[in-house]
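It would be a great kindness if you could assist me with a short task in structural biology. The matter concerns a single protein, recorded as an amino acid sequence and a row of backbone structure tokens. Could you please explain, in whatever detail you think fit, how the structure tokens follow from the sequence? Thank you for your consideration; the sequence and its tokens are set out here:
___
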Amino acid sequence: MKWIVGAFIFFALFIGTLVFVSMKQEISLVSNTYYEDELKHSEKMQRVSNANALNSKPALSFEGNQVKVSFDQFNQIENGKLTVQRPSKAGLDYQFNVPAGSEPIQVFELKKWEQGLYRVGFSWSLNGQNYYVEKLLVL
């Protein structure tokens, strides 16, 4: 009979430990406006479709702690935005405004970074059309 009490106490301590550990875990969404962003999914798919129809698409890559965007139409974009998201840690997300420029390559520095998977997205407007490309990169 004493072993049943011991087993119950062990089980209760085990469950209590699991609850304590799970409460200390940091849970963060990909973005603070994740649910609103998902409601705009069809708009995003249209921007992706517009980008896929282009003859010349932007190239996204990492070089050290920098994100490099290569696009030969930088001088024609109306407004651009580069987002760098770390799905496992929202504190390492970045957002940059991408101005029109004469150079076909623009580089953006990540002040804080860790090795791992990043989702890099580039959205821009050109001649009244909206475009979006996204790439998963490992740093």
Remarks:
- The beta strands are 59-63, 66-70, 79-85, 94-98, 105-109, 117-126, 129-138.
